[in-house]
Recover the amino acids of this structure.
């Protein structure tokens, strides 16, 4: 079952805080990586040369799902490993140029780091852990709003609803949403509310000017649910 | 705003978004062009 929650993360312009203090337990049990999502080729940048009223449904969907404003990020679900014990370099073909270090190694995209089953020998193949896909979208970007409007205009309301635009976009805030698009393990829902209360979610935004933290987190129930294999 | 300066821009800019939860972290880098960044209200959301 798909997650029933969306996390909406808003940065209040008046709430620029200090540096993030991370509890160790929060970051220990995880391994994460960025999905190697190749940048859209120039020919695919339809939003640059085509007005939104001419976008097809497919183009509008692409914009809200895979575009400079909407990226699928992969989270490898670890257990107690403090760090990846094995890495799979996948080259720099799809690597963000900013993420290539002085030795030519891709430090970000295109690189998979996955823990290895400690019972295996050192020459064994890595054991890839279950992974989840989380769609992160810069919701308040104009093209995203235009794409949702275009989907509605084309009668693609179910598709638009499935992509779950936030119910409100405050004019004085940037809004980023995170939606669980692919649950990696049975029952994995990073945004689920536990009996003990809301999950501890901390979001931050880093720019040239510094780090903004915390961001306001707003949970919004998804209006559409579906089953997936 | 940060120290009375716009958080992003002018010109092509970037922002790295990080979400930390129990047992997972999501990190996402956006490259943003102010032309598309959005105004919902251009006076307040440059």
């Amino acid at each position: 079952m798909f997650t029933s929650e969306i996390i909406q993360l808003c940065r209040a312009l008046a709430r620029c805080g200090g540096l993030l203090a991370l509890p160790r337990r929060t970051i220990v049990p995880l391994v994460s990586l960025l999905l190697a999502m190749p940048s859209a080729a120039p020919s695919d940048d339809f939003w640059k040369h085509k007005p939104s009223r001419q976008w097809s449904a497919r183009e509008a969907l692409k914009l809200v799902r895979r575009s400079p404003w909407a990226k699928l990020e992969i989270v490898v679900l670890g257990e107690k490993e403090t760090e990846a014990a094995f890495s799979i370099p996948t080259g720099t073909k799809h690597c963000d140029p900013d993420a290539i270090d002085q030795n030519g190694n891709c430090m970000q995209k295109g690189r998979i780091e996955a823990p290895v089953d400690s019972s295996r020998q050192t020459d064994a193949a890595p054991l890839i852990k279950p992974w989840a896909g989380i769609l992160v979208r810069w919701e308040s970007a104009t093209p995203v709003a235009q794409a949702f409007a275009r989907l509605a205009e084309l009668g693609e309301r179910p598709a638009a609803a499935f992509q779950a635009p936030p119910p409100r976009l405050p004019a004085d805030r940037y809004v980023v949403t995170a939606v669980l698009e692919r649950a990696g393990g049975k029952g994995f829902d990073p945004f689920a509310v536990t009996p003990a209360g809301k999950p501890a979610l901390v979001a931050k935004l880093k720019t040239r000017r510094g780090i903004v933290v915390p961001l306001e987190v707003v949970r919004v129930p998804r209006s559409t649910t579906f089953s997936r294999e | 705003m940060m120290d009375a300066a716009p958080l992003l821009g002018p010109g092509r800019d970037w922002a790295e978004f990080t979400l930390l939860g129990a047992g997972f972290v999501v990190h996402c880098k956006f490259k943003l062009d102010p032309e598309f960044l959005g105004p919902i209200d251009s006076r307040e959301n440059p």
Remarks:
- The longest strand of chain B covers residues 13-21.
